Amino acid sequence: MMAQISVVMATYNGAAHVRQQALSLLAQAQLPAELVVADDGSTDATLDVLRDTLAGAPFPVHLHQNALNKGYRRNFIEAASLASAPLVAFCDQDDVWRPDKLARMTRAFDDPAVKLAYHNAAVTDRESRATGRLYGSDGGRKVSESSLADPWSFSLGFTQVFRRELIAFTPLHALSCDFLFPQERLAHDQWFFFLASCFGRIAFIDEDLVAYRQHEANVFGAIDRGRARRLAVFKATLDHSRGQVAARGASLSAKEAILKAIAKDETQDGSCRATATALAGHYEEFAALYADRVGTYSHGIGSRTAFWLHLLASRRRLGTRGLAYPARHAVRDLVFGVLLASLASPTNGH
């Protein structure tokens, strides 16, 4: 018997496209065990469209409307906690699922070690014309089996199905830090991908199981080729390099704290706690590496040079520990950090 899947949909002012998404759920060969909809305060007819389209659906539909707008991160994370089936699938409001999506994804969990599976998708424009594929054949990951080598990998939420047991760690989500937007917590897809990579395997299904609709055309302003503009772009590049390294370091430290909390949690089984302990040590070392990288963008040039030389001297040792400091990062830190950091905008404390 196939495992049951709860579908969790987060909506916000999606009336224009949500009917097509809902119809594709009704057309699934393996129907959802339930549909949980968390609406984030829509001011259009999103919920009316869903009620009309899903009237008489052959599975339970639970509609929840937030009193206050939570933002998509918190909305998805909290909505996932309402799911009751052994497997959970995230669902956007504006895509179209292939009829065999749930059945195909369920089979990935025949392997008990798989904690999360994700699939490829056909990228389409707003008129549903195919424009490409979301991922290459590697699923966009550098390493598919290791929880250590690439802490930055994640898949988009609408491609994911994961075991509900991972929701037990949701109270620790508040400790997380997004390496792209460090003022934010991890997005729902980053969060569950991180947990699955720590405590099991992640499977990639290289099939286009969703038509991933893109709404907005990319719009670029006119290029100002003046000297002031070129200088501003140059300084922004330096600031971005420094900020990116610092943000990644903060994200690694946050993951270390999360794993240490799991390791201390006596309600978790011994195997889970042992895994968390080992991974916390790894993330601690990785965070220290990024602290050295931040050092190449700070202080005076002598101190920046010392940090960079220390990183170079540590490359072989770091490599044996699964902590990559590739040559391209070393070159970037040398150029944008050691040599040019003094030209970037000042930061607090430096």
Brief account:
The chain is α/β, with parallel strands linked by helices and 350 residues long. The protein has helices at residues 18-26, 46-53, 72-80, 101-107, 188-199, 227-264, 270-295, 301-320, 327-339, and strands at residues 5-11, 34-39, 61-65, 87-91, 96-97, 114-124, 130-133, 160-163, 201-213.
> Given the structure, what is the number of helices?
9
The Rg value, from CA coordinates, equals 22 Å
Outline type: globular
CATH topology of the largest domain: Spore Coat Polysaccharide Biosynthesis Protein SpsA, Chain A
- Going by helix content, strand content and strand pairing, the class is alpha/beta
List the domain count as a whole number: 2
- How far the N terminus sits from the C terminus, by CA atoms, comes to 61 Å
Q: How does CATH name the architecture of the largest domain?
A: Alpha-Beta Complex
Find the CATH superfamily of the largest domain: Spore Coat Polysaccharide Biosynthesis Protein SpsA, Chain A
Tell me the β content.
15-25%
How helix-rich are the residues, as a percent range?
Answer: 40-55%
Largest sheet: 9 strands, mixed
